[in-house]
C-alpha cells in the first residue's frame, strides 16, 4: 500500500500473482515428476551440491518469520484479550508443538479448514469496512495513485513469499498429472492472494495513516468501533500465526525425516515438537527488533537471495529437467 492504492492492486495482480503462479506450478510439477516431497531432495535435483545455499536463506527467513509470529501472537493476546504476553507465547508454542507432533495428515486438514475460516472473517471485515468507510475507500481507490517502485515492490513480495513453497511439498504427494500440478499452482496462487486483496480493500480507506501501523487490520477495526469483530479477528489472526509457524517448522521436520530415512534411520515423532519449540525459542530472541523493522530489513534481503538461488535455477535448469524427463508409459486398464 505504500506504493499507493492503485499501485498496490496493480502490483498484486499484474506481478505477484504471475510470479506465484509460475513458481508454484513449476515447483509442483518438478516435485511430482521427480518424487521430491521435501525441500532438500527438491533442491538437490536442480542445485546439486549448492542446495545448502537455499537452506541458509530458508533458516534465516524461518527465524525472522517466527520472530514476527511469536512477537505478534504475544502482543495481540496481551493488548486486546488481556492475556499475559508469556501466556500468549506459551499457547502458541503448545499449538505448534501439538500440530507438528500429529504430522502431515492433521496439518493438511488444519491448513484447509483454517483457510476457509480466514476467508470468512476477511469477507466479514470487508463488509464492515465498506459499511463504515465506504466513501473513504471509494475516494482513495478513485484517486488511482501509483507511486514509484510499485513493480519492484510487487516482485520482491512475490519472491520472499515463495521461499515457503518447498516447506509444503508434503501436500504435493496427492498430485498425479502435469495438468493437476499446473492447475494446483495457479489455484494456490489465486487463493493465497485473495485474502491479501480483501484486506487491502478493507483498510485502504485509512490510507496513508494505516501504512505505518504494525497490525493494520486491528487499527482499522478499532476506528470502525466493531469490538466483537475485533475479538474474532484477533483469534483468527492468532490461529493464522500458528499456521504460519507450523508450516515453516514442519518443512524442517520433513527435511530431517527424509535425510535420516536416506541413511536408514528413523525420525521419532517425539522429536518433532522438540525441534519446533527449539526453533521458536531461538526466534523469540529477535522479537525485540520490532515487527516493522524485521519485515522491512529481513524480507528485503531474503527476496534477492531467493531470486538468485531458487527462482533463476528453477526457471532455467528446473524447466529443462521437467521437459527432458519422459513420462512413463502407462498400460491401459484391464477390462
Q: Please report the total strand number as a whole number.
A: 0
The SSE order reads HHHHHHHHHHH
Major β-sheet annotation = none
Structural domains: how many: 1
Question: Span from first to last CA?
Answer: 59 Å
Draw up the topology in text.
Elements: H1 5-34, H2 39-47, H3 52-81, H4 85-102, H5 104-142, H6 150-162, H7 178-203, H8 216-224, H9 227-262, H10 271-284, H11 291-324
Give a verbal description of the structure.
By secondary structure, the protein is an all-alpha fold. The chain has one domain: Up-down Bundle (Amino acid/polyamine transporter I), CATH 1.20.1740. Helix content is 77%, strand content 0%. It contains eleven helices and no strands. It is globular. The termini are far apart.
Short recap of the structure:
The chain has helices spanning 5-34, 39-47, 52-81, 85-102, 104-142, 150-162, 178-203, 216-224, 227-262, 271-284, 291-324. The chain is mostly helical.
Keywords:
335 residues; Amino acid/polyamine transporter I; 11 helices; mainly alpha
